[in-house]
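Working notes for the structural subgroup meeting. M.R. asked for a predicted model of this chain before we commit to crystallization trials. I am recording the input and output together here so anyone reviewing the notebook later can reproduce the run.

Input as submitted:
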Amino acid sequence: MNKVVLLLLGVCLFPRPQAVAQAPQAPLGFWAPLNAPLVHYRIEGRIQSTSTLDAEFSETVDFTNTTGRIIQQLALNGVSECEREPEITAKGYVIETVSRDELSKILSPVSLILTPPLVANAALHLDIKATCRMDDSVPGEDIFQHWYPQIWWGYSTGDDYDVKITVPEGYVLVTSGRPDPKTGWNHQERVRDFGMFLAKNVQVKEAEAGDVLVRVVFRPKGAECADLLSATAVNVINFYRKRFGFYPYRSLTIIPGGADPVGGYPVSTAIVAIHGEETYDSKADNTHWRWITAHEAAHEYWSEYVPSADGGWGWLMIGLGLYADREYSRSHGMGHQHRDMMNGYIDGVRQGYDTTAGRTPEQEDALEWDYGNIVVHDKGLSIISALATVMGPAAFDRAYVRALREFAGRPMTSDDFAKICEQESQQDLGWFFDQWVRSDRFLSYQIASQHCQEEAGIDQCQVKVKCLGTLKMPVPVTAEFEDGTHQTQSTDRWADVSVLKFRSNSPMKSARLDPDDDLAMVVPPPAMTRAKLSEAIGQLGGTGSEAQALDLFRQAKEMAGVSQFDWLNLGLALYQGTHYSEALEALTRGEQTANGGPGLWKFACIAWQGAIMDLQNRRSEALERYQLSLELLKPYPWLKVKIDKYGVLIDRPWIQDRLKTPFQHK
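Returned structure, recorded in token form:
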């Protein structure tokens, strides 16, 4: 092997001489830059027909190649609705448009080959002329999304726009930009998707939130709702600006959604839709309308200003946005929506769904339950809320704002956000994301007991907290005292049982787990499945696991099909807790089960029965167990089991030694 490596190195160090003349270099293919150049779009045009909604426009696209590499192939999105290929030219470059068949015309971007290639730090100016047609899905109204040719780098980016579109008389047009009333141009920066909403028989209510223009488009019956949405949007934007230091866009436009008041959705950058405006009752509780306004405005931070790395709205973007509108809701006396969402995730756990986050769209489509609500929304909020609890409010807020600043206009992954959180909190958070994101473990803690005793005028109190679930993390517990004071401590994330000690000059009035109601606790935990039981047994071994081992032992006895391997691990954990009779029973059940292969782990179950019997001065029975285990080990001479806590390796030599010398604790 070393000789081969040396020969290969020799070829590299002393290459064969080559002729000077070389074949022309093949065109460079499409590649995605790590950091895409900032693009400026200037689009001017008009909508010709209200029946077919033909949009005829000219567009300029400008950017400088800041990637540090040569660019020869570009991709354009947003031309699937165009009736013909756009006319694209660039001074100083020959542009070849790669032909598309009908299927790829719908599903794929248009490819442009530049000759000569665009070298590093060179500027490119594209002139585009296009006519695109939109469906008139609602008579008199239409939403324009992806209606113009847009540079696509393989992921969403935020770019700068100047747009001016003339519409037929009688129609109202609002866009993702803030309009200049003098020129008619709409301006916006860091835009992911510049959208437009065209409608007739509507009105527009305008208000200012600092330098942000708030527009609410409404039909006559929605006027009262428009007043509330406008006032709420101004209040929300001012709150977010104060909390996070800025609001990302110079406008926020709310347009009518569906007929029923079932929420809303982000239409495109700086445009959101809210459903059911005309059903608003000014005499009824307006909490829903205020909350959905805050919720949709938060999307402008997450998914628009910071695009999602998966191209959609995954748990991270949704969770971070929900955290923002929860903070607004709490500060304004609202908040039950967020507890309802956490309860939706809890119900999903109880129904036995695999709530692992971060599935691909293909994996999500294969599920027969509502992954989008239960995991993306409900668990997404639960993850972010739990993360803020672990990090502490100050560190989490720093990470939140830093992520907004550093990933403005470029996609962020959960790993990106995790790294920022670790840096701001100065703690390793891999264990958190492993449990909350990359598994379907669930959180379940409960106060098992509390006891106080007065000593020398000081109340000495102990609060025992038990972990009932499969996920472990520090959980805050607040003790309140009769003099109005309170103290907060957190459980040990390693322990199955934590004993927290409080001292006070006043008697303790109560102890409360998760005092700020930030955590999605599954209490009581759902019935254990065999797979979950096996997973929980495999995690035994940490501080306080003796109590959990007893609990799992009780559940295992009531469950069919527990494997030899799980009975063995459970017996060893019970032994470590000096629960010898229960350990012997678990090991005996492991010996008797066929689930795991005849004799595969049975030898260790029987051998460790002998060890426990030696400790109980039952030497003759122990010798019989050792001898039988040796017989069973013959087909598997390579098998061995290690008990880390005591440094014991159960294998053939160890069993042979036990025939000579009784087992003793080390």
